[in-house]
């Protein structure tokens, strides 16, 4: 944004005025005598741009009648060009309208108009104080952030005496302006506020600490009273619970004991009645058992008589059985042989004769079928022999075809076809060509790696583009260095830390100011780098000046190290995650990823290159071997291709071979069919043979059975006698078994009766003993009953005493009694002795606690109240203490931040200030200090010190003068002005902005002609922007020629009237 035109009307004694400020790089001078109204022009600029330093009411003419309305208008036109070009049309005009009615406040209206043609605006916005959206605050923000022409924020307008005030200014005021320009005042205010906050927190902490100590002592007293109260309550409660619980347990125990004894007495009375009844029953049972014994003995005698009678019958039957068995044995001996044969016969005599007749007919039929089948079998066997001869001939021919086909198919399987072989030959030829190209490529890479290895052995690791740049600068006779020749990682860095510098590590530094870059690597002129301090290592970034570097190259390495540091200072251009980020975009790595910034990386790269040389040597050897193998394969395929063509011709006659195979298959199928028929006929033959054998065997058996039946007819009477005797023998044996079973049953019954009689005898003996025992039991029960009645009377007496004690306690401690009664465990009650001991212990404890003196019933409430207050105060103390630590830490951090920021900015200023002062044969120094006054307030001073080169003595601040109005001490007026101007230039250079213009009022009022021109040239050279200079002096032609436009402000006090007369000294390029 470049000022292009200024207009104003209604301002002081000026008529409507237009000042042409056009020209992007054209400098403008406005001159005139003192009091002519030059500064009014800067005030108009400031008023239009809403500067807080301009009082608009001061622009009103003092010659305006009081009853007349003041109307004024100011416009400032900008051309959208220069470094700070914004996203807006070509021209932007800012205007201010002022109206003040008599006796009324001033009314202002700002407006912004924009368009590509002057006075033909495309867009306009008005800003008034009452508008909701477009008010003066919005106007100020638009100036700051959208158009970037805020005169206060960017220090675009230096009003009257502002540029020359630094030398005569108090060091504290000088520091204030310095801190405002660099944003240090905010950090300073934060630090001062943190100091005040620490002091306030310390006072609060002291008060809180004393409160905590006092409340802690009070809490200790209340705790002792609470402990005595709680101990008393504990004993009272525990003793009362034990006492009441024991009495309740005794009550339950006595009640249970009385109930138990009553039940026991009733049980004993029942047991006594049961014993008497049992005695009567036992006597009755004993008498019954005696009668049963007599009955059993009578039955036993009767059974013994019956057994004797049955034994005699059994002997008679046994004799009859023996006689019959003797006769059967004689008959069996006579019939033994014929009987064995007869037992094997399964058919009757009639069945045997019918089977023989049927068998004769079947044999005749089987013999006929056998002869017929034999004839068919012989004819089929002859046909099979003829088929075998035909199959043998065809099979031989097929086998010859198969062998030939196998050979040809194997060849075609291997080579597919003559066309495929030809393609393979062509492919091998192409591979050979490619491998020869690879051979050439590997040879080239091997040469490159050998060259790189030689560079690495010389401690040089350069990329191809770096080598190109180095050769270029060598041809231009300019010294150049690769970044790795100047900088390396420090010893604590890891190799992977080098990734942070990927985007700049291939940078080339050359000893010059400007040169054409031969490629797209970073090329940095060393003469344009001015470090603000001497550095050889950056520990945070883990880099340093390369070890062992020569003294001649060391300054270049320091500049390179400082240049790298600038990327990590949160500026517009920075490095983050290895990427360069600037307002125009993002840039990544310059070359492929390699490690080049450490000795360790160099050694690793050397090993990698050696390994690559080995690998490429092997690859080259493999490629050469592949070329030889492919050449050999091509020769072999050329010799085999005609055989493949023969195989293809053989495969064309496939149909003939298929017909032969088909005929062979048909002959084999016919032969197999005939062989199957032969097998069937043979099976039939075998079946007929087996039938003939079976018929012969059956005929022999039937004839043998017929002979047996002939013999049996002769022995018929003996058989009938034997059968009759056998039946009689079976009947007698059955009678014998029956009688024997009856005798065994009687003997078993007798044994059972004997056992019953013995058991009954034992029962009678036991009953006698039981009757005696029942008498003794009745006497024992009578004694137990008497004893239990006495125990029950004693328990009732004890229960009455316990109930009386419980009634008394229920009256004294009703709540405790209710609690114990509700919670007492009555299921598992200990022994009465233990309960009585517990009652005595509880009673003693309870009575002692009731009568204990000096117990405060409100101790617990008092303690809780004091404890809550103590905890509140202690918590407040801890919070305050933590807050104090935090405040102190924040104060120290802010202090460190403030000192670091001041040191950095002062160091930057001093570098430039020294450089500027040296050009005028002066030594310059900028320093600062801080101190506390008696009221503990911190004051900051910024000193500007200067002396002529060659002079001795300590340098003093340029504002120091002799005391008491004396003269003769301090610097001259010209030196004050020079130091102020050069300090202001250093301040402007140190700001992180680059606007397109600056307005300086009374810029050279105290400088001589020589210094005036030199200072102007220095401003032009360093600021590189349009300068608008207001000066009251007359100037030489050489100085005037430095400006493209010059204006003279004239004032006639008699009218009064001021006017601006312009003379164009040089036509600008735009015009």
Automatic annotation (TrEMBL):
CDD domains: ABC_ATPase
Coiled coil, from the record: 184-225, 251-278, 321-365, 599-626, 655-812, 856-904
GO MF terms, alphabetically ordered: ATP hydrolysis activity
Family: Belongs to the SMC family. SbcC subfamily.
Protein name, per record: Nuclease SbcCD subunit C
Subunit annotation: Heterodimer of SbcC and SbcD.
Record flagged with keyword Repeat: no
GO biological process, one term: double-strand break repair
Organism: Mesobacillus persicus
SUPFAM superfamilies associated with the record: P-loop containing nucleoside triphosphate hydrolases (SSF52540)
Keyword Coiled coil: yes
Taxonomic superkingdom: Bacteria
Keywords for this protein: Coiled coil
């Amino acid at each position: 944004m470049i000022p292009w035109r200024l207009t104003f009307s209604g301002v002081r004694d000026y008529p409507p005025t237009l000042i042409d400020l056009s020209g992007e790089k054209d400098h403008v001078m406005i001159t005139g005598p003192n009091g002519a109204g030059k500064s009014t022009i800067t005030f108009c600029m400031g008023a239009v741009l809403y500067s807080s330093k301009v009082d608009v009411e001061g622009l009103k003419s003092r010659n305006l009648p009081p009853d007349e309305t003041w109307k004024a208008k100011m416009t400032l036109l900008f051309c959208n060009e220069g470094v700070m070009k914004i996203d807006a049309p070509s021209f932007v005009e800012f205007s201010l309208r002022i109206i003040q009615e008599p006796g009324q406040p001033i009314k202002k209206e700002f407006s912004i108009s924009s368009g590509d043609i002057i006075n033909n605006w495309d867009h306009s916005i008005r800003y008034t104080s009452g508008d909701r959206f477009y008010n003066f605050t919005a106007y100020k923000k638009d100036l700051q952030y959208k158009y970037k022409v805020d005169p206060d924020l960017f220090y675009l307008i230096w009003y009257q005496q502002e540029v020359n005030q630094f030398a005569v200014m108090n060091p504290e005021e000088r520091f204030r302006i310095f801190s405002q320009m660099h944003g240090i005042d905010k950090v300073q205010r934060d630090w001062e506020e943190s100091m005040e906050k620490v002091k306030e927190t310390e006072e609060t902490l002291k008060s809180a600490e004393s409160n905590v100590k006092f409340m802690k002592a009070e809490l200790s007293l209340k705790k002792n009273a609470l402990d005595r109260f709680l101990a008393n309550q504990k004993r009272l409660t525990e003793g009362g619970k034990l006492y009441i619980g024991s009495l309740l347990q005794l009550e339950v125990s006595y009640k249970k004991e009385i109930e138990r004894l009553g039940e026991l007495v009733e049980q004993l009375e029942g047991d006594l009645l049961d014993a008497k009844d049992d005695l009567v029953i036992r006597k009755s049972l004993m008498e019954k058992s005696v009668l049963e014994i007599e009955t059993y003995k009578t039955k036993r005698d009767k059974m013994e008589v019956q057994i004797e009678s049955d034994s005699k019958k059994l002997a008679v039957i046994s004799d009859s059985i023996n006689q019959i068995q003797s006769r059967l044995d004689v008959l069996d001996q006579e019939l033994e042989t014929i009987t064995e044969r007869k037992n094997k016969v399964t058919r009757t005599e009639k069945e045997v004769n019918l089977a023989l007749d049927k068998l004769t007919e079947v044999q005749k039929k089987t013999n006929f079928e056998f002869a017929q089948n034999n004839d068919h079998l012989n004819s089929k066997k002859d046909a099979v022999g003829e088929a075998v001869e035909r199959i043998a001939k065809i099979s031989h021919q097929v086998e010859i075809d198969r062998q030939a086909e196998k050979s040809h198919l194997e060849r075609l399987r291997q080579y597919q076809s003559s066309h495929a072989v030809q393609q393979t030959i062509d492919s091998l030829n192409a591979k050979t060509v490619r491998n020869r190209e690879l051979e050439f490529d590997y040879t080239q890479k091997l040469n490159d790696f050998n060259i790189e290895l030689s560079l690495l052995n010389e401690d040089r690791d350069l990329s191809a583009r770096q080598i190109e740049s180095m050769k270029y600068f060598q041809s231009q006779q300019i010294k150049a260095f690769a970044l790795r020749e100047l900088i390396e990682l420090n010893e604590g860095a890891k190799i992977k830390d080098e990734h942070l510098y990927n985007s700049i590590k291939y940078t080339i530094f050359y000893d010059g100011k400007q040169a054409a870059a031969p490629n797209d690597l970073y090329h940095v002129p060393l003469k344009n780098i001015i470090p603000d301090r001497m550095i050889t290592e950056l520990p945070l970034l883990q880099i340093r000046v390369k070890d062992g570097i020569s003294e001649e190259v060391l300054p270049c390495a320091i500049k390179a190290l400082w240049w790298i540091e600038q990327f990590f200072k949160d500026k517009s251009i920075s490095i983050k995650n290895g990427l360069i980020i600037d307002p125009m975009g993002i840039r990544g790595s310059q070359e492929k990823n390699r490690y080049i910034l450490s000795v360790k990386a160099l050694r690793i790269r050397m090993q990698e290159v050696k390994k690559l040389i080995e690998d490429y040597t092997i690859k080259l050897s493999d490629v050469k071997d592949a070329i030889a193998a492919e050449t050999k394969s091509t020769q072999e395929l050329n010799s085999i291709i005609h055989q493949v063509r023969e195989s293809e011709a053989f495969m064309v006659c496939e149909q003939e071979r298929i017909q032969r195979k088909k005929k062979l298959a048909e002959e084999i199928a016919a032969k197999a069919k005939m062989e199957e028929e032969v097998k069937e006929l043979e099976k039939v033959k075998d079946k007929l043979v087996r039938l003939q054998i079976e018929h012969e065997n059956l005929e022999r058996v039937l004839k043998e059975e017929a002979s047996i039946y002939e013999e049996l007819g002769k022995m018929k009477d003996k058989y009938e006698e034997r059968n009759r005797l056998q039946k009689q023998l079976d009947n007698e044996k059955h009678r014998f078994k029956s009688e024997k079973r009856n005798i065994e049953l009687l003997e078993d019954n007798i044994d059972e009766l004997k056992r019953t009689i013995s058991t009954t005898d034992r029962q009678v003996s036991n009953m006698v003993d039981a009757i005696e025992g029942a008498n003794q039991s009745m006497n024992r029960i009578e004694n137990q009953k008497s004893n239990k009645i006495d125990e029950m009377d004693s328990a009732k007496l004890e229960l009455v005493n316990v109930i009386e004690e419980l009634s008394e306690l229920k009256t004294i401690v009703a709540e405790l009694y209710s609690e114990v009664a509700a919670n007492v465990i009555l299921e598992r009650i200990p022994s009465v002795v233990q309960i009585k001991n517990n009652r005595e212990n509880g009673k003693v404890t309870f009575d002692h606690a009731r009568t204990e003196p000096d117990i405060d019933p409100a101790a617990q409430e008092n303690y809780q109240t004091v404890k809550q207050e103590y905890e509140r105060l202690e918590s407040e103390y801890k919070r305050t203490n933590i807050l104090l630590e935090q405040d102190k830490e924040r104060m120290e951090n802010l202090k460190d931040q403030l000192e670091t920021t001041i040191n950095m900015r002062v160091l930057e200023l001093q570098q430039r200030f020294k450089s500027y002062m040296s050009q005028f044969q002066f030594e310059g120094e900028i320093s600062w200090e801080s101190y506390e006054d008696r009221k503990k307030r911190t004051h900051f001073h910024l000193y500007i010190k200067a002396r002529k080169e060659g002079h001795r003595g300590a340098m003093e601040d340029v504002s120091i003068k002799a005391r008491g109005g004396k003269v003769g001490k301090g610097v001259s007026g010209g030196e004050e002005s020079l130091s102020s101007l050069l300090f202001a230039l250093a301040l402007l250079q140190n700001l992180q902005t680059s606007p397109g213009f600056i307005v300086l009022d009374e810029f050279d009022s105290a400088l001589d002609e020589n210094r005036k021109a030199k200072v102007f040239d220095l401003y032009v050279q360093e600021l590189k922007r349009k300068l608008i200079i207001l000066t009251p002096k007359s100037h030489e032609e050489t100085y005037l020629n430095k400006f493209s436009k010059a204006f003279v402000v004239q004032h006639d006090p008699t009218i009064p009237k001021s006017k601006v007369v312009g003379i164009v000294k040089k036509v600008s390029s735009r015009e």
